[in-house]
Structure formats: structure tokens, C-alpha cells
UniProtKB/TrEMBL annotation:
Xref: InterPro entries: Adhesion/Biosynth-related, FAS1_dom_sf, FAS1_domain
Domain FAS1: from-to ranges: 23-157
UniProt signal peptide: 1-22
Species this protein is from: Larsenimonas suaedae
Name this polypeptide is given: Fasciclin domain-containing protein
SMART domains the UniProt entry points to: FAS1
Keywords: Signal
Length: 161
């Protein structure tokens, strides 16, 4: 009977460790989607990619991912300075504004009205005609994973100074 109990405990512990393992599907999806290549490059330059690679069911991340076109619409001085090696802290600040701890479904986001970003500022959530808006920018739900969610943004969110 004791050995059966030990096996049962070992199986339970094994299953627990499986659910806490990183689910790289969120990161793999971002990395393999061409329209997010600028966002992915920024995440890699600032080391924030590790946060997404390490996302799991215990520590999910909701990503509001700006498209390449969103980065292209930035003012020319902002665009060129943002990715310069001397401006990594500013880039990290901007990108952290696009990351929220948790696996936030659209319905939950609309009910909460504000989400705390990893950057520290709150993202204001609005629902207009069924569309989800994040700090004034339309967000389209792209894909859900056990480790988080990806929403597409057509504008880059810029932290308040």
C-alpha cells in the first residue's frame, strides 16, 4: 500500500511540473508571424523575449502586439531613435507597456476597464460597438494559448512621460 501511495504522489508531482513548464507556442507564434518582426526584434534587443519564452499556465502573459505598419507610422525621430543601442531603456519601457501579466480574454478585459501593464502604467480598456480598444487603439484578438494571448494593434502604445 505504501508503494502505491508513493507512485500516486510521484505521478501527481510529475503532472504538476508539467503544467508549470513553459509553453513556447505564444513566443513561436509571434516570432514566426512576419507582421510582428519589428516587435519581436525589439523584444529580443531588450531581453523581454525571455519573459515570453518562459510564459506558462502559472505565469501567463497577454501581449498587445503592434504590427510592423504600426512601427512604420511612428514619427521619424521616434522610429530611428527607438531601436538605437543607446535607447534600450526607452525601447524596453515602450514594449513593456504592451505586456500584461495574465491570460486576459476579451470579455474579461472589457469587464475590468483597465489593465496594469508590465511598464507600470494602466491600459484603459473600452468596448465600442463590440470592438475592444486599448488606450484608444483597436485591439483584435489573434490567438489564445495556455501561456497567454496575443492581440494585434495597429498603433504603438507610447508611455506617458
Amino acid at each position: 500500500m505504501k508503494s502505491a501511495r508513493k507512485v500516486f504522489i510521484a505521478v501527481c508531482l510529475g503532472l504538476t511540473s508539467l503544467t508549470a513548464q513553459a509553453d513556447s507556442a505564444l513566443w513561436t507564434t509571434l516570432e514566426s508571424t512576419p507582421q510582428y518582426s519589428r516587435f519581436v526584434k525589439g523584444l529580443e534587443l531588450t531581453g523581454l523575449d525571455d519573459k515570453l519564452k518562459g510564459a506558462d499556465t502559472a505565469h501567463p502573459v497577454t501581449v498587445f502586439a503592434p504590427t510592423n505598419e504600426a512601427f512604420a507610422r511612428l514619427d521619424v525621430p521616434d522610429k530611428s531613435k527607438l531601436f538605437s543601442s543607446s535607447n534600450r531603456d526607452r525601447l524596453r519601457d515602450v514594449l513593456n507597456l504592451h505586456l500584461v501579466a495574465g491570460n486576459i480574454a476579451p470579455k474579461e478585459a472589457k469587464q475590468r476597464h483597465a489593465l496594469g501593464s508590465n511598464q507600470g502604467q494602466s491600459l484603459i480598456i473600452e468596448a465600442e460597438s463590440g470592438a475592444l480598444r486599448v488606450s484608444g487603439v483597436e485591439a483584435q484578438a489573434v490567438q489564445a494559448f495556455t501561456s497567454g494571448r496575443i492581440y494585434r494593434l495597429d498603433q504603438v502604445l507610447i508611455p506617458r512621460q
